[in-house]
Amino acid sequence: MVHIGQLIQKELYRQNRSITWFAEQLCCSRSNIYKIFSHSDVSTMLLFKISVILHCNFFRYYSESLEDIEKM
Fold first, then answer.
1. Is residue 64 scored above 80 in pLDDT?
2. What is the pTM of this model?
3. Which domains are assigned to the chain?
């Protein structure tokens, strides 16, 4: 199963971006960013915003997961 919060955190660190920068981009507090990291899912609108900010299509992880399930 996809844990999107961990994937977002991993991508943020891969890009060498700070939590403060990310919070400013999302117009939220740093504590909310840590909450996002801890959640296994987020709303589609939030995921879309994060995808745009980080220039990373996080929806693909769900598509890949569906493809794996269909192969079973």
1. no
2. 0.89
3. 4-71 (1.10.260.40)
